[in-house]
Structures are given as C-alpha cells and as structure tokens.
C-alpha cells in the first residue's frame, strides 16, 4: 500500500503535503515536494518555512478547495509560476502568465554582466539601453530598478507579450524610464534610439530538433515563439547580431543569452559581424549562458 493510500481526513498540513507529493510525483512532476509546498504556502498565504512550524494544523474546506484547484493544474503540467501568477527575478517580482516565457535564474547572469559593464552613474549623463524580445520585461525592469540613470527601450514582436511587460513596469513604478515598442527585433526600435550604450537580449535560441528534449511544462505551456529559432536555434541570432552594430555606440557592448551548447557557434557569428572582445560567460551551473561582445 502506498503512503498516499494510508492518508485521509482530517487533512493537516503535513498529511496534505505527503499526499500531494506522491500525487504529483506519479504524474511526472520533477520537483513534487517543492511544488506542493510552494502551492500550499500560496493557498494558505504562509511562507514555506511556516508550513513546517504548523505541520499539525488542519485545513478548512475553503483552503482545501483552493489547493485542489492549483494541484489539478500542476498535475496537468502547468508551470508553478503561471499558477501563482508571479515569479521573483533578480530584485523584483514579476507578473507571469501564458503571454510570455517565465523568467529563469540563468537569465540573472545577463543582468549581472550588464551591471558590471555599464559606466558608473553620472548625474549629468543618461545612459540608453535596449532589451530586444523583452518578454515579461524581466531584464529591462531589473536593470532599470538597479540604475535610476538608465533609460530603457524594451521591444517584442508580440502585442500580447508587450502588454504583460507594460503591466509589470506599472506595478514596479518604472513606466517613466522604460519605453515599449512592438516589432521584429531591431525594426521595432525608433531611430532616435539608434545610439545605444548597451544592447541586451534573451532571444529564442532552442532548436526545433531539441523540442522533444524539453520538459512538458515548457514545451506544452510556454509560448513557442519565445522558445524556438529554427532547426539549430540560431536563426534569430543570425539576424540580430549583425544588425546590432548599427544601433550601438562605438565601444558599446552587446549581451546575449544563449544555449549552453552554442558558445562556439555564437562566437563565430560575433566575429563574422565584426565584434571585438568576445567572451562567453557561464551561468550558476557553470554552463555557457551569456555572450558578451563590444562594438569597435
């Protein structure tokens, strides 16, 4: 008999977590205990640590009902961030839904690299940066929140996705310093933004050949247009990299999130376009994650 079969009312926090962990694990969730705790904490409006302090607390029917609905969605493969409606990124919290890719910790590698490369704040100088393919607005808004001297142009090809990014800017009170433009890559960028101090992007970079390697949560629920870029994942980068030279100031940097197997290929694209001081930076797991290059 499985542990889930021995469990039943009254449903305390400990018992419901044990049952849910088994239930989600049987349905292929890769982190069933963590997911169960995060969702229960949300249902009860408690920090996860408080779940451990209140293991013997019984749940009332309204709490159980709310939790059941979330677990049903998670068991079907829906990502936790979409169920919660938010995700922490860098030093901000972003609204998340199916209009955009869920921000990932690996992308914080790009934010950190950008902050290190931006010139020191100068009261008499306003820096201009563009974030191409902004999604939720994660990179643009994290950088704007860190640097009050920064003006940011955030672009996306999807009007729906851009709507979510604008909502996040409003929630973070950053709408006055982050401007949003719809269109394909750099075609969306107005001419008066064509002298950038930095350009950053987390473009689609997964190859169609890798589709079946993705977790179900990603493949079936996150927007495909934000994930895939041709057979080898480099189609968009082949267009974005050479075009970036036309909008960067001399000496300014281009920073790109890339796939962990794309370091050599992206280095070649940057070299062919004429960029200098090219480097591939690792993420927290030690895998290639960010391409950094300077316009001569």
TrEMBL record:
Statement: the UniProt record of this protein carries the keyword Transferase: yes
Domain annotation Methyltransferase small: ranges: 122-210
Recorded superkingdom: Bacteria
Binding site for S-adenosyl-L-methionine: 133-137, 156, 202
Keywords: Methyltransferase, S-adenosyl-L-methionine, Transferase
Record bears the keyword Protease: no
Signal peptide range: none
Biological process terms in GO annotation: methylation
GO molecular function: nucleic acid binding; peptide chain release factor N(5)-glutamine methyltransferase activity
Pfam families: MTS, PrmC_N
Main EC class the enzyme belongs to: transferase
Stretches assigned to the Release factor glutamine methyltransferase N-terminal domain: 16-85
InterPro entries xref list: DNA_methylase_N6_adenine_CS, HemK-like, N5-glutamine_MTase, PrmC_N, RF_methyltr_PrmC, SAM-dependent_MTases_sf, Small_mtfrase_dom
Listed EC numbers: 2.1.1.297
Binding site residues for substrate: 202-205
Reactions mediated catalytically: L-glutaminyl-[peptide chain release factor] + S-adenosyl-L-methionine = N(5)-methyl-L-glutaminyl-[peptide chain release factor] + S-adenosyl-L-homocysteine + H(+)
Function: Methylates the class 1 translation termination release factors RF1/PrfA and RF2/PrfB on the glutamine residue of the universally conserved GGQ motif.
Family: Belongs to the protein N5-glutamine methyltransferase family. PrmC subfamily.
Name used for this protein in its record: Release factor glutamine methyltransferase
Record organism: Lujinxingia litoralis
Chain's gene name: prmC
